[in-house]
Write a structure and sequence with these properties.
Layout (H helix, E strand, L loop, with lengths): L1 H6 L7 E2 H8 L10 H14 L6 E2 L1 H8 L10 H9 L9 H6 L1 H5 L18
Antiparallel strand pairs: 1-2
Helix pairs in contact: 2-3
C-alpha cells in the first residue's frame, strides 16, 4: 500500500508506466532513455502489468514486491553478469560493477541498487 501511495502521482489508485519509470529514472527532457530504462518499460508491460490494462493495481504491486517464489531473481543474474563482466572471467569486480552502475541500479536483482551498499561475497 505504501509503495502504491508513493508512486501514484495522479492519485487514481494505480501506478501507470510513466509513474513507475519516474520512480526509477529522471532523465533530461528530450534525451533518449538508457537501455536499462527501456528494459524496465518492457518489464512493466510484460511482467508487472499482469492484466494488461496499462497500470498496476494493488494486487499487481503486491505480486511485484512479494513474488510467490524466491527464484524470481535467478533469470536476472546471468543478464547482469553478461553485461557487466568486461574481463570475461565470470566474476564481477568492484570496478566492473561501478562501470555498469546504471544496469545495477535499474535491476530488481540488486533491489534497485540498495544491495550494492551491503557486503556481498558474490560481488
Amino acid at each position: 500500500q505504501e509503495t502504491l501511495e508513493d508512486m501514484d502521482k495522479d492519485g487514481d489508485g494505480f501506478i501507470q508506466e510513466d509513474e513507475y519509470i519516474a520512480e526509477l529514472y529522471e532523465g533530461s527532457p528530450g534525451a533518449p532513455e538508457p537501455p536499462w530504462v527501456l528494459e524496465e518499460r518492457t518489464q512493466f508491460v510484460g511482467a508487472r502489468d499482469r492484466d494488461g490494462d496499462g497500470r498496476l493495481n494493488p494486487e499487481e504491486v503486491g505480486y511485484w514486491l512479494r513474488p510467490p517464489t524466491a527464484g524470481w531473481a535467478l533469470p536476472m543474474h546471468p543478464n547482469l553478469l553478461h553485461h557487466a563482466n568486461r574481463s570475461g572471467d565470470g566474476l564481477l569486480s568492484r570496478a566492473e560493477v561501478l562501470a555498469s552502475w546504471e544496469l545495477f541500479v535499474g535491476s530488481r536483482a540488486t533491489t534497485y541498487g540498495e544491495d550494492l551498499g551491503r557486503p556481498h561475497d558474490e560481488l
